[in-house]
Design goal:
By secondary structure, this protein is mainly alpha-helical. It has 6 helices and 2 strands; from the N terminus they run H-E-H-H-H-H-E-H. Strands 1-2 form a two-stranded parallel sheet.
Length: 195
């Protein structure tokens, strides 16, 4: 009975993995359509600008994490009177390439206004700053978009998922054939009878 339960679990895992593959393929198609639309002249693509900013913010975040001088209480930050003033200050820091200062400010704002536009302490600081920057840059504009993500090829990921799906399917088929064989083999624990 335990082997039947394991086989059932494997079959369900295969179905779940196949659904994940279909979802990822749909995502790839969506990204492809976005790239097609991006060639339209009336659209503004901020992907490169935000990708560069993300890279630089990640580097600044790593420097802050590695340097004990950047610890939480080491810098005296101005206490902001409003979220608007804080956003303006962060945007100025981002424009002036003071990325470490912007990261420290987002931390202060999260303590002043938890779960507001600045997110919570569990949210990624870099992503929050990117969202604030993008919103500010696109105020009152239509047709602006940005795709910021990994540089790994989506087709490569899709191919790997398909290969893994085929391997799982083959393992399930082998397990099913073993189950069929064991049901037809005589039970070795039964002792022979004599007449």
């Amino acid at each position: 009975m335990e082997s039947l339960a394991q086989l059932e679990l494997c079959q369900r895992l295969y179905k779940l993995h196949f659904q994940l593959l279909l979802l990822f393929q749909s995502y790839c198609k969506l990204i492809g359509q976005v790239h097609e639309v991006s060639s339209m002249p009336e659209l503004l693509n901020m992907s490169r600008e935000l990708s560069d900013l993300k890279k630089h913010l990640k580097e600044a975040s790593a420097v802050i994490a590695a340097d004990p001088l950047y610890s939480e209480g080491a810098w005296s930050e101005p206490t902001f009177t409003s979220t608007e003033a804080a956003i303006q200050s962060m945007l100025e820091c981002l424009k002036n390439n003071e990325l470490g200062k912007a990261l420290r400010q987002i931390r202060e704002c999260r303590s002043l206004w938890p779960n507001d536009i600045f997110g919570s302490s569990s949210d990624d600081e870099v992503q929050t700053l990117l969202n604030i920057y993008f919103r500010h840059q696109t105020l009152g504009q239509t047709g602006t978009y940005a795709l910021v993500g990994s540089n790994q090829s989506l087709t490569e990921i899709c191919t790997k998922l398909m290969e893994l799906n085929m391997e799982i399917r083959d393992m399930i088929r082998r397990a099913q054939s073993y189950r069929v064989l064991t049901t037809f083999l005589p039970d070795s624990s039964v002792s022979g009878t004599s007449l």
